Amino acid sequence: MTLGPEPSPSAADIAAIRALLARLGVTPQHLLSETTAATRMPTFDEYINRVSQAVTDGTRRVYDTYWRRIRNVWGDRHLDEVTPLEVKQLSEQIRGQIVPRRNARGGRTAAEHLVGALRCLYRYAVIDGLIAENANPAAKVAKPRRLASTRRALPDGHLARINEVAATTGNDPNLDALLLRLHTETACRRGGALALRRCDLDAEQCLIQLREKGETVRWQPVSPTLMRALLLHYDERGTGDPNGPLLRYRNGRPLTRRRYDYLWRRLGQALPWVAIQQISTHWLRHTTLTWVERHFGYAIARAFAGHDGRTDAGTTSTYVRADLYEVANAVAALTNEPHPLASGVPPC
């Protein structure tokens, strides 16, 4: 049996429905919303607590400051009560409150993190079905455009002076010299160094396992000299737990980011250009990766840096990806030491 077209509602029916909706106080937005009447819209105070427990430690560390500011301003308001204009106003307010520093970028980073912190909250609110995706106010506010980084590769002479001062001054020069060698040789980030454990050291193949931002994990070749230094550091300061942090103070306490602050403040006092240019550990990453790119090409520099290639260099990077052995060749040339995984080099 063939069914005919469904009859269209009459004008009288539509008028009756409109009158009923008006009497009930229901608007078209209520009908289109994905949030049901049984779902209670949480406040920012409530939802920040829930989201904070769901994100990674790195995300929490970056956004926690901005979530606290959001609590101070909107803590008792519901998620669906904030407009894109209010998000923009708050980002500009925080941008204007930034403490002026020599390396300040006009508060752009603070405004960017504020919008990012709100986008993180609303992304989970969309997943939870609390709001519709097109009702996300943070997604409608653009982040400030990032300025080009002022970091660059250090000249050989400057790098040598930094290592010399670190190894001859301070309350633990052996630790600081080891830190600088680790970052210079591997181009790892601070988080990767602080997360290093004894079980991450493959002494036979001269490899260390780095766990860095974005929950990335990779094996990075190191020189035999650095491997011996890391093993000796563990023997002298380790607690016997191979799963605990490797880098430690003399008293056995695990290293924290404060050691880096102390180190570069001390270097800046001895070398004024370090303080003036705001040189930090990340400059060592720039230095090493620039050297690798100049001598071994872009693909090997990307692998050396631990970049996964999903957001940079386009599709071509998929076909020119470098392997671990090519990175080992670069490490052997950088340190002027043989590496067991480098081609044509005898094992250490």
UniProtKB/TrEMBL annotation:
<dbReference type="Pfam" id="PF00589">
    <property type="entry name" value="Phage_integrase"/>
</dbReference>
<dbReference type="InterPro" id="IPR013762">
    <property type="entry name" value="Integrase-like_cat_sf"/>
</dbReference>
<protein>
    <recommendedName>
        <fullName>Tyr recombinase domain-containing protein</fullName>
    </recommendedName>
</protein>
<feature type="domain" description="Tyr recombinase">
    <location>
        <begin position="149"/>
        <end position="332"/>
    </location>
</feature>
<dbReference type="InterPro" id="IPR010998">
    <property type="entry name" value="Integrase_recombinase_N"/>
</dbReference>
<dbReference type="GO" id="GO:0015074">
    <property type="term" value="P:DNA integration"/>
</dbReference>
<dbReference type="GO" id="GO:0006310">
    <property type="term" value="P:DNA recombination"/>
</dbReference>
<dbReference type="InterPro" id="IPR050090">
    <property type="entry name" value="Tyrosine_recombinase_XerCD"/>
</dbReference>
<dbReference type="GO" id="GO:0003677">
    <property type="term" value="F:DNA binding"/>
</dbReference>
<dbReference type="InterPro" id="IPR002104">
    <property type="entry name" value="Integrase_catalytic"/>
</dbReference>
<dbReference type="InterPro" id="IPR011010">
    <property type="entry name" value="DNA_brk_join_enz"/>
</dbReference>
<keyword id="KW-0238">DNA-binding</keyword>
<keyword id="KW-0233">DNA recombination</keyword>
